[in-house]
Amino acid sequence: MNATTHAVFGVAALTGSFLLAGETPPLYAYPAAVVAAWVPDLDNPRSRLGNGLSRAKSPVLNAAILPMSWALRATSFAFSRTVGHRTLTHSLLGGALFVALVSPMATLSSNLFFALVAGYASHLVADALNMKGVQLLWPVRRTFRLLPKGIRSGGVMEFVVALAVAAAAGYGIYTLHLGLGGAFVRAFMSGIL
To answer: Domain boundaries in the chain?
Structure first.
């Protein structure tokens, strides 16, 4: 799946989770979920984060992001050379390590922590829809797919799935932040759970 699809899945996971919890996430949780949805692809040097941060038109901004960009590229290179793509970072073990790494955020903001975890988990779900699937039990080399043949990355079906997920996430955001029906949906969901 491409970076845009992962971003959409990250927002959808965050939105859906908060709808189920009956709470409204703060606005800063959305970009956090998007960035976290890109983190598992750090093992691919051609990914959004693995390629480092793109150069901005401002020399001051470039100087500020250069160390982070180098760190992202070095991390991506190390992952790519040691464990390869769609292995550790696309597994339950990688998810557990990510949760341990970001767990100090929980004391700062439980919403931020939850956004990061939802974004990361959404990446695994999205890639499980892909033809290649994911090795959830890595280092065991068994591939898991949510669809028998999977969706080709960059294909028309990926676009259709991303569009449907974006529509659902958009409706969820509307319900959480703007919709009059938000209270009804939260009451209904809390009645179910």
So the answer is: 3-192
